[in-house]
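User: I want to check something. If I give you two sequences, will you return the structure for each one separately, not as a complex?

Assistant: Yes, each is folded on its own. Here is the first sequence with its structure:
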Amino acid sequence: MITSEWLYWLIGAFFIAVAVLIVTDTAHAKRLGNAAFWGILGLSFFYGTFVAAKTAPSWVLGIAVLVMVALAGLGFTGTTSRTRVASIPGAGTGAETGPAEPTGVATKPSSSTSVLATTSPDERAAFATRFGNRLFIPALVVPVVAVLVATLGPLVRIGGDPLLAEGSATLTGLGIGSVLAVVVAVFVLRPPRIATPIREGGRLLQAIGWAALLPQMLSTLGIVFTQAGVGDAVGTIIKSVLPEGSLLAAVVVYCLGMALFTIIMGNAFAAFPIMTAAIGWPVLVQGFDGNPAAIFAIGMLAGFCGTLVTPMAANFNLVPAALLEMRDKYGPIKAQIPTAAVLLVVNMGVMYLVAF
């Protein structure tokens, strides 16, 4: 029976490989801090298997997280260069990347190959013209394979036993699809070195920095909040100040609460169980006999309004700014604030008019 542990180990191995590339890059100004950060993360994926099996203490992972927080918080990670210079064929000399200071990567080609090396804008434009729509093939492999494995995988049995462990089909499909996508990308694009996928992955990880881990951390925070009974506590407070019998006030509080908790937690899915336990189910559904499907669907949309305006939603707001090398890393948030405010009010009105 195949479990999803192999995927966690593969991810851990990738992070460790990136750490090795960084630590061997003597021209990198922050190589030790970066290598330690991603190396610890990689080892955590391996160690987590034994924690889940209850054969190793979990406090070790807690210490690892605190060390990573210290490394990121004290500025020992990330890149610091306005110019990326490559020293391998087809990797170009790079271009200005934004408001950051110099990175410590050499300003002219040297005998060492920096993990930050990448193609220049002109080279990327030339490659886009050369490969055309074939560039999308690797990206399409991931969802196609993931859907096929998640759909058909649970049906496969060997000797009467299922091939995939219960609940592992989706992760297994995603893992297989990702591996195949890398193989297809190498076959189609023919990079100058077989290690190019790892080097490019390492470059993107450093460009994103610690924000790459926010979704994982925030999902854990949501579980902790739910288990701690935060929803019940919030519900008690809200009911004590909510005007009795006022449907409009209840709708406003629910939608506004979804947005605010999403801003705090960075994820509407983490905010949903808290606000639903506090006011969504007991007040709007049971108290005002509302339509659960409509209330909760519109409530999630209200939460997404909070996603648009919070740096905690790094995968939506900070990561694009880093990948696009914007001078203002909060630029996406500033641009989205008016839209978020209008949508939040609209969601309140729609819920009030159609859900009851």
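And separately, the second sequence with its own structure:
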Amino acid sequence: MRTHTDVLIIGGGQAGLSAAYFLHRFGLGDRYQLLDHAPGPGGAWQFRWPTLTLAAANRVHDLPGFGLVEALGGDCDAYPASTAVPDYFAQYEKRFGLHVERPVHVRSVARDGDGFRVHLRPDPAGEKPTEITTGALINATGTWDRPFIPHIPGIEDFGGRQLHTHDYTGPAEFAGKRVLVVGAGISAVQLLIEIARNAPGVQTFWCSRREPSFDPTPFTAEKGRAAVARVDERVRAGLPPTSVVSVTGLALTPAIDAARRDGILTWRPMFTRITETGVCWDCGGTGSDGTAETALDVDVIFWNTGFRSSLDHLSPLRLRGPGGGITMTGRLATVVADDPRIQLLGYGPSASTIGANRAGREAARTVADLLEVQTV
């Protein structure tokens, strides 16, 4: 590891690898370093639950220059994503000679003259530096390390088990349990169905803040562009990004349609309080119509309530504005408006596998322009 670099990439997932690939393409192959805190290649995919196959995962888009099928073969859809994607990413890093250092944990980033000073967690072996300076920053840290659980009154009183999507290992652990799945995204629906169909003796329940919308029509490129445009508009205005699902709704797949017919996807509105034994709605007596409060006893509350951008290490830069988000600019909204030396990948419209590739190219091009390198 060098203690100074012209360009520093933080994060070794799809966006970070894409940015590194294009830095090589733009003649900056010897002027960057990529720091990744994971133990090996694969980004967040290496931590996913073992029952998630490539076929069941939200599409893993090809990295630029070397596709998934080319790396793993035409039958790769049946492979667990937690091993297949790390294998693919490892091949990719080796094929293009990407400069990845891992595991390296970034603690904070602060401005330092015309560049940035990056503080690292000390290496137990004492072989790596504790600080790196850089002239430009490409942040691609994703969201996996920041699972979000909303604060609901009584959450600390629950006597059963609570877990997040981040902690899920498979349906077997819920056998014989009463499980409440919370969330309206694709992970909530997929895991609810998986648990209901594969955990012996389980009883499942489902609720979320907003009622899910199922779209029976095919997901088209036009729908995708419209969803991305909505998120793009928000981050350019300095507002926190929203998920694509909140714009497009959930695709009504055959598996989801069958689960609806079988009564698995019976939705309830969000509860108002958590109790020692479960949850309740209108807790405290009777509702406005004079009926008694409604309660549901469960053994497990399974939060599928999404993730937030892993940006705590950038806090000293004070990037967030009064709208609660970071104001972004640039052709693909990858450039921090207040400091164009900082590129954020995976924030806003680039928070998808296909968006990560395009954003990686744009971030690399922007950095090359800052360093006055001729690109093609």
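Because they were folded independently, the notes below concern the second chain alone. The radius of gyration is 22 Å. Residues 353-370 form the longest helix (18 residues).
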